[in-house]
Design goal:
By secondary structure, the protein is mainly alpha-helical. The chain has 4 helices and no strands.
């Protein structure tokens, strides 16, 4: 072999300026930063997708619970209304009329309504009902 060929045992000195070293280091740092940034973005993106999935699952569960609660409320309202009797068009006694029949005391609002309903049942429907409490158990 010739004398001009460098082998691994023979060190080679290459002249590089400080500016060239800075440029090489800047490129290496830029490349490393880019790789780290890409990996960081992948990790953040993965975490966000995982959190979004968890939030979507929780939201779906909450929506199902809300639907179930709404259905139960509707069923309870329907159940509570099934024993109600709605009477439309009955004249309501004035407080003075109701007061004259209750020993001079101001009647409770429910008492005046009860009296009006009992009058309607007994006079118009020809039923013999003495108290609205009687109606609750029939």
């Amino acid at each position: 072999m010739g004398d001009n060929v460098a082998t691994s045992a023979t060190p080679v000195t290459v002249g590089v300026s400080a500016a060239e070293v800075e440029g090489i280091v800047a490129k290496a740092v830029s490349a490393a930063t880019s790789v780290v940034q890409d990996e960081f973005e992948k990790i953040v993106s993965f975490c966000l997708r995982e959190n979004l999935t968890l939030v979507e699952v929780r939201l779906n569960e909450a929506e199902k619970n809300l639907e179930l609660a709404t259905k139960k409320i509707e069923e309870l309202e329907t159940y509570s209304r099934r024993d109600n009797l709605v009477i439309v068009g009955l004249p309501v006694e004035s407080n003075s009329e109701a007061a004259s029949t209750t020993r001079g005391e101001e009647p409770e609002p429910g008492e005046a309504v009860e009296k009006t309903v009992l009058i309607f049942f007994n006079q118009q429907l020809q039923l013999n009902i003495q108290s609205c409490v009687q109606l609750q158990y029939h």
